[in-house]
Amino acid sequence: MGKLLVIAFGTVSAVITTELIYQCFVWQRGKRKQRKLKHEEEGMITEVLFFPDKEVACKNHFISDRGCFNTKCRYSHAKTSLSELYRHLNTADKSLDVSIFCFTCFDLAEILIMKHKRGVKIRIMTDDEQVDSSGAQIWNLRKEGIPIRTDRSSYLMHHKFVIVDSRLLINGSFNWTRQAITGNQENLLITNDSYVVNEFRNEFEKLWKEFDPKIYAESE
Ligand SMILES: *[C@@H]1O[C@H](CO)[C@@H](O)[C@H](O)[C@H]1NC(C)=O
Ligand SMILES: *[C@@H]1O[C@H](CO)[C@@H](O)[C@H](O)[C@H]1NC(C)=O
Ligand SMILES: *[C@@H]1O[C@H](CO)[C@@H](O)[C@H](O)[C@H]1NC(C)=O
Ligand SMILES: [Zn+2]
């Protein structure tokens, strides 16, 4: 009799536990769904890009007002990860805050110079040891009058992010090099989530002040 009671009790509690776990799962799933819906309703921008691209995107086709006239163009007119990066950078009409470890890609430098000439306020932060590396576009940009600051330590300014008009963050492993476009496995996350964007803005402002050459001059 006692044994029977134990079995009955065991069965009932097992059923209850299973039911509880299941309800908990349903509740969690509901919450996830709600979050996703909220996300979509707010129309938040989120995009994830992966490299390498199979082909290099044609900058003229995606950026220039007149498009690409070259009938024998060797570059891709189809959407790629790089063309998406171009598109987002091209939406800037106030500012571009760029923090990049290694910058050798000519096309990306050209976009910044074009934006600079159109009155977009550009600031670039990079690693001091990378500035001198061969083919670095940094000198070209500096020549155009774009403000550039670097760290001054043996540690690396290893960030790779861009803030567009203080509202959109492009962040990832992506170096601005040809090798990173068509060779490496790289990722970029693009978001306008205001919390994340603000955190990166604050960090940029903090480092921008720290890397002010005037401050170095005082401490030397
Ligand atoms: C993010 O972008 C979407 C779509 O353009 C816009 O509706 C939303 O207001 C933006 N969010 C923020 C915080 O700027
Ligand atoms: C930014 O990108 C780096 C490199 O991929 C990654 O480690 C970091 O977590 C990213 N940050 C955010 C907020 O996505
Ligand atoms: C960025 O480029 C530099 C120089 O080419 C390289 O040493 C470094 O490993 C690269 N970083 C990433 C994350 O690809
Ligand atoms: Zn083209």
UniProtKB/TrEMBL annotation:
Q: Which chain segments does UniProt annotate as zinc-finger regions (C3H1-type)? A: 52-80
Mind listing the UniProt keywords for this protein, alphabetically? Hydrolase, Lipid degradation, Lipid metabolism, Membrane, Metal-binding, Transmembrane, Transmembrane helix, Zinc, Zinc-finger
Enumerate the transmembrane spans.
6-27
- Domain spans labelled PLD phosphodiesterase: 153-180
Which Gene Ontology terms cover its molecular function?
RNA endonuclease activity producing 5'-phosphomonoesters, hydrolytic mechanism; zinc ion binding
Mention any one GO cellular component term assigned to this protein in its UniProt record: mitochondrion
Q: Name one GO biological process term.
A: piRNA processing
Q: Where is the C3H1-type domain?
A: 52-80
PANTHER family, A to Z: CARDIOLIPIN HYDROLASE (PTHR43856), MITOCHONDRIAL CARDIOLIPIN HYDROLASE (PTHR43856:SF1)
- What does the similarity note say? Belongs to the phospholipase D family. MitoPLD/Zucchini subfamily.
Q: Which protein, by its recorded name, is this?
A: Mitochondrial cardiolipin hydrolase
